[in-house]
């Protein structure tokens, strides 16, 4: 009986525990599984398998006695419970009363122990302990539960061990006068309470049961709602205290019904002539807790327009109905009730509905959501995406622009107004702050694009009726930014000198201090230049994998009208780029332009305008080149270059290999790699990121110490990924191209360089990739001894032969030479290195032979044969045109792809080199490294044909594409054209003006939007 009574008392306390957390009667389902009840935790209730609660903002603390593990074999309340098992369903949602359903499980568990075994001293499940009757029957000599044996009074039950002895209430009737015991009364009270909750469907806060600890975390309660009786803090609660709390819920329910009854009259308002009374403290919601809201770190709230709210959805609904109106909030802050009057603001008014796109950057007013995250004011000029314009200046994302070109910026309209006054090519300062460092302003130099990499600044506005963003020009038609310069000159930078007067020096830099420097360093320093190369994201052609490069170049030509810089192609990768030059001889930064990219060797020429140097033009001079004699093993050279601080650095080194052949593998995305080159290796250098020149003791340049990109397989680990190395590039090939550019005698393409039209040189090459093999290895293939001896006599040091690794697709040698052929001689002259082949090709140009055919002696499959192989003529312009269609960048097939040895058989097609996120190409799977050979059944062999076909496709029309991958696998896909956000446009280099021009091919008419 004691165990039964203890269990029922603990069950009642557990129900109070759940009500204490203000559980809504319509949202609680509690399921108690069959398992032993642990008592190892300080706060324990019955183990809960699934419990859905809605907890108020400030729950009061609860402390209960640890629940002692019990085993219940008989329920004392037989009129209500047939048999009490440990697995029951409490449904307070409005169905059956919370009774414990009888569950008969064969071999089930009643005592909560695993495996069906009973603890020592107890009977197995389904059996009665020794000396007891089975359930439902009274043992001999005993009366049924609820009755006393004849002539005896009912035995007194001892209280649980955790509580002091119980005191029976004086008003309690003797057990013999009632057919039900005292436990039945308590159970009936619980059922009545639960039924009332289901009828009212209201939220009731029950008084918490406090035990064990003398803590009170409740906020002060208003005097209008005195709290219920509490037990002494440091004393254990008794059964009498629990019975006193049983009826407290009725008072709360009656008070709640009176306050919320629709029949109750509204409170009388004071007479108009009387002064307004002081607002009383806010009334507490049922249960004694005061309304709170989470203002100023206090506990949270509760009254909105004198309506109690403890749910976010309800508060949002109330606020939505009061937009642009004033509301009163009664809150509690630091234990003091406050009344606040606030204006409900429309969220749409603080959410931007327009943004500016300029140079790929997206700028708009700061939204309420981001202002809340960054603790900024709404409406500030916010950088959502830095694009090409701001990323080049080093402005990060999430920056807030404060000043632009010397004018304060507080709104987006201010930024557009300043932008409309600028012209192309100018450089202006910009000040901004970042949310990570909000207390300090940072400055940057923004360069307005000289070329038309991007469309003119556009303003996007959200159209709620159509669901689209309408696009219109952001600048007026008379803005100088909309009128590009006629030629690519730096005359427009004179306007920027007014804006950047603090950043330019009027006096030339004096001679360096008198520290002991090497002669080559002092001689070479005025010829060194640091290059910063930026590639626009909208036109990353030829498989370029980065948007920023930097390296050191050397001035090889300097005159009044033109200056030329030689640099490696790992620094200047493509001609579609913007260059800024910093000179070691004079502290100034001016723009440059790419004028020549060698199709095979790893070097390029960059031109600059000497007049832009101002007084520094007299301090800059060209280096003296020394192509002959070639370096030999063991020669001493001086490696001279520039550090990041533009300080000349040099060291003496020795040549370990003057003719090391390069062997660089192809990358997963084809891009330039140096082939058919012999480079110079040193015993020591400054690392893989240091570039410069190799000079002798007099400062004469033997080679360029340039950077090379080394590519590995696509599935390699990050530690073995792309990396770069440095080697010496012999100066002889550079000097040959330089002479042709300066003389202008070549019949190559004409382009404008610093306002002067010049003929760019053409390069005749044998488009075959070769690699050297030692003669000791080559002899095993079976060439004759005469051929081997002729190669030894030609080059007794290297003793090697060149073999064919592959031919470039589409070249004249593709169908003549085969992989593995040994190249023995050209025009009967033995060949042992790459330079011999270049000399033979140049000999064809000097002899004015138009056919360009070389007679090669090769060894193939055990015999020597002679074949006639044609040569190809390439210019140094690189890729000069591209089309952006459906968010994909397509171009003609570049040499790095052709070097793989494959082209589509039918018309070749246009090659996809880039796609944009969110574009139709991205959505429909038109990715890089594939050719588009047909559009709607029409062949597209080149860009002109592709432009003509796509011009006929309308907005929203589905397009059928035939594509071929690099592996040769064909594919057919369908793409839906979107001209509203992704118009078709072309970027093409104009050699007459040396400018990149942007032309719209197909766009959505403004009347359609």
Summarize the structure.
With 1009 residues, the protein is an alpha+beta fold.
Task: Please explain how this structure is put together.
A hairpin with a 2-residue loop joins β27 (750-753) and β28. This protein is of the alpha+beta class and 1009 residues long. Mean pLDDT is 75; it is low at 16-180, 200-246, 266-305, 489-517 and 713-721. It is elongated. Strands 37, 38, 39, 40, 41, 42, 43, 44 and 45 form a 9-stranded antiparallel β-sheet that branches. Strands 15-16-17-20-19-18 form a 6-stranded antiparallel beta barrel. It is built from 17 helices and 45 strands.
Which residues sit in consecutive blocks of at least 5 with pLDDT less than 50? 16-180, 200-246, 266-305, 489-517, 713-721
Overall 3D geometry?
A: elongated
Structural class determined from secondary elements: alpha+beta
Q: Helical percent range?
A: 10-25%
Structural Rg: 44 Å
| Strand element count | 45
The average pLDDT score comes to 75
Per DSSP, what share of the residues sits in E-state strands of 2 or more residues?
25-35%
Distance from first to last alpha carbon: 83 Å
Number of contiguous helices:
17
Oligomer: single chain
Sheet with the most strands, sense and barrel status:
9 strands, antiparallel
